[in-house]
Amino acid sequence: MKLSLDLEYSTPPEWANQVLEDFDSFLQDHADCERKASSMAMSFVAKCPDKVEIIPELIDTALEELEHFQAVYQLMEKRGVRLPDRMPKDTYIDRLIKLCRSSVQERLMDRMLLASIIECRGAERFRLVAEAAQDAEIKQFYKRLWTSEAKHGHIFVKFALNYWPEEEVYERLEYLNREEGKICESTPWRAALH
User: Going from the N-terminus, what domains does the chain have, and what CATH number goes with each?
Assistant: First the structure.
């Protein structure tokens, strides 16, 4: 069942061409994003030990993101690409976090809903990479990932619906989705997921 919203902003297919021109840098960024996604799922477990209904699925999500990190790292190893000493700041994520409200419960809802949007954006962009790639291995690799990330977009909305009224969740999700679209539209392209 689809719980996430369609993204407000559609990334132009030309974005993927830029990514493929500097694919090694994209892989480094992608690996970093998967590592952060795993950490984010576990941070929800740490911050919400009382929310026992969602902890098992959060752990599964963290493990799946860690498996994605491992798969990206293995692809990097095959291509002779190393993890960088330091990753540049992700201004997309920073700008999204600034949209979060400050009270504990509102911030928790916002973080869950932003996680959904971020996963949907990742799925959209992985699909674009899969469609643009000429290399069969890369095409297949990103096709697999896009279906997994799309599923995660639904999971985080489902989590929020456990604790807040549906109308409140979707009203906030629509707002955050609109704002995310504006952020994407105004963010210069680079060989990175965001």
Answer: 14-186 (1.20.1260.10)
What is the identity of the amino acid at 148? Answer: S
Q: Is the pLDDT of residue 122 over 80?
A: yes
Amino acid present at 92: Y
Query: What is the sign of the dihedral through the CA atoms of 74, 78, 83 and 154?
Result: negative
Give the residue from 97, 38, 103 showing the smallest Cα distance to 71: 38
Average pLDDT over the chain reads 94
Distance CA 146, CA 142 (A): 6
Q: Which of 50, 32, 19 is nearest to 163 (CA)?
A: 50
Identify the helix (H) or strand (E) that includes residue 182.
helix 166-186
Contact 9, 180 (CB under 8 A): yes
Whether the pLDDT of residue 1 is over 70: the answer is: no
∠ CA 76-136-193, rounded to 5°: 50
Neighbours of 116 (CB within 10 A): 25
pLDDT digits (tens, 9 = 90+) for 86-105: 988 899 999 999 999 999 99
From the list 42, 70, 68, 64, the residue with the least C-alpha distance to 54 is 42
